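Try it yourself: sequence plus 6-O-phosphono-beta-D-fructofuranose, in.
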Amino acid sequence: MRIGILTGGGDCPGLNAVIRAVVRKGIMHYDDQFVGFMEGWRGVFENKTMEVNMDAIAGILPRGGTILRTSRTNPAKREGGLQRCMENLRTNGVEALIAIGGDDTMSVAQRMYELGLKVVGVPKTIDNDLMGTDFCFGFDTAVNTATEAIDRVHTTAEAHQRVIVVEVMGRDSGWIAVYSGIAGGADVILIPERPFDIEEVAERIRMRHARGRYFSIVVVAEGAKFATDAATAHGAPVVTDMGKDEFGHVRLGGIGQILAHELERRTGLETRNVVLGHIQRGGSPSAFDRVLASRYGIGAIDQVHKAEFGVMVALRGTDIVTIPLVDAIHKTRPVDPELVEVAMGLIDPIPTAPANK
Ligand code: F6P
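Structure, out:
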């Protein structure tokens, strides 16, 4: 069979491991041939391809990024874009497509499926918030990177008796913040799912310092929001003024800096801000992510040969299953409330004022 493959959206460690697994099993067990579309859906739209054979995938398992490169191109936003993609797939003799990506990539895959494309999705987002799957590959690596950074920040915060705010990725959900915050022993963790009261955060830090601690670590997801109140007039995520991408996403950034400024002003404690940014998406995948990515890759190529399309492979508990593409798109998966409870159990409760009689 001649199968197309692409990687779309933000990159993350483990993309190459998926490609390798798909291609190895496809060539060695099913006698398949592969055509890679470069830079996500842009490669399908512009007909930019590369042959993906055993030589192309040699040595890529531990490599971050993606040999197929990626982009946030949305062909549905261009005049006749989806039809042109269908035509280019036909010209290349593609009988089925494996699309590796997140919500945006899957939403285009679903549109193409409705036009007749035989497509199987593989879930990918560093934020770990894709619906329908318990974990995305790349997330574990990002958490390890963020945890190591928090450990490093701890020692310098302690030496200088400072508060340090660490801003991590997490556009709509705080999975990286909660996991790395728990693993790194953060004193405050702020996530998009729970808008925060800045005065309450300041109070937690004051209380900790009143107990004799002389430094604090705050982990904040980039999409975290101030609760709306008259004093801060926030309530929306902090964004840069760079406009939106083709899927309508704003570019986030700046919450850590604002938070550091506000905390220093409110507590009188010297405060610094560190933004981890794309460091979390780079580098070699962890062993866990290599295994998960390989399982997804094998699941996807097996699915193509079962000839059941319009689905995405997913992890449910410890099993690889498939779910309809439509179940994975247009919504995000919030952090498990039980995890938030674990994080809350590790910090001081704020004493509630006695009720007035
Ligand atoms: O969607 C994943 C993500 O890493 C978000 O956490 C982040 O806001 C965004 O991508 C960054 O996108 P870009 O790589 O386009 O700057």
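One thing you can check immediately is this: The first strand starts at residue 2 and ends at 7.
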